[in-house]
Amino acid sequence: MAALEESDSWVWKHVVKLNNFTVQCNIDSCDQTYKYTIDHKHTNRMITRLKGHLYHKHEIWTEEDRLKWENNNDSIWQYFDKVDLYKERCKFCKYFRHEAYIHNLKLHLRKKHSQEISAAAQKEIATRSLSHCFKIDKEELIAWCKRCNHKMDILHGTDALMHHICFKKNQRLRSRQKSENNVNRMTQQSTITENANTNSHYDDINRQVPQNQDFRQR
After folding, report:
1. pLDDT of the residue at 215
2. Given the DSSP bridges, would you call strands 151-153 and 142-145 parallel, antiparallel or unpaired?
3. How far apart are the C-alpha atoms of 116 and 42, rounded to whole Å?
4. In a 10 Å sphere around its CB, with 0-12 CB exposed, 13-18 middle and 19+ buried, how is residue 86 labelled?
5. What is the pLDDT of residues 155-194, one digit of tens each?
6. Helix ranges, 34-158 (H)
7. What is the distance of C-alpha 43 from the center of its chain?
């Protein structure tokens, strides 16, 4: 099986590999199965779902995972209340979910509450005077930057939009400063070259002066 973080190794003790693509919970007569791949991202997703299954169905968990869950500060928690380990209640519909995989909570919001979220986002965008910078796609819950066409998930709130604007402003400022520095360096180099040419000219004149004096003496 794919390599995992050491803190997740305990999960494998409670599953059996059926084939190259499927694992099954091996506790008592539980027949819960999960798709398995060698892809690191999908493996982590499966492990997270297994943890939720082991806790809710068999009351098996680790203190480390419980602390990670409690201290998780993902922006998704502005829409859900943590009721228990891997158990959440949607603030919109008050529906209880038993999810360890946060991505599934985001899918719930997109499927069931896109109108509420887009309306709230548009109100906050107007309040923070961002309407001239972003366009909202209500169905995809995406904010498009009108300047660079960059898209952002509004589930993360308007702080991410503000960060994008500040980042772009800093980029333009750095680019302007770099351009000004280049101009200054070119000006300085031109001045140095001009001074060097002037000094060289005077040196030539000074070298010619004794020759002129000798000519007059003859």
Report:
1. 47
2. antiparallel
3. 30
4. buried
5. 877 888 888 887 766 565 566 666 655 656 666 666 666 6
6. 40-58, 63-70, 102-112, 114-127
7. 21
Task: Give pTM, 2 decimals.
Answer: 0.65
CA distance 141 to 154: 6
Residues in CB range of 179: below 8 A, 6 or more apart:
none
pLDDT, tens only, 40-92: 778 888 899 999 999 999 999 999 999 999 999 988 899 999 999 999 999 99
- For the sheet containing 87-90, what is the strand order? 80-84, 87-90, 96-97
CA 25 to CA 15: how far, in whole Å? 4
* Kind and range of the H or E run holding 4: none
**Structure token digits, residue 135:** 């366009």
3-state secondary structure of 130: coil
Cα separation of 68 and 135, whole Å?
A: 35
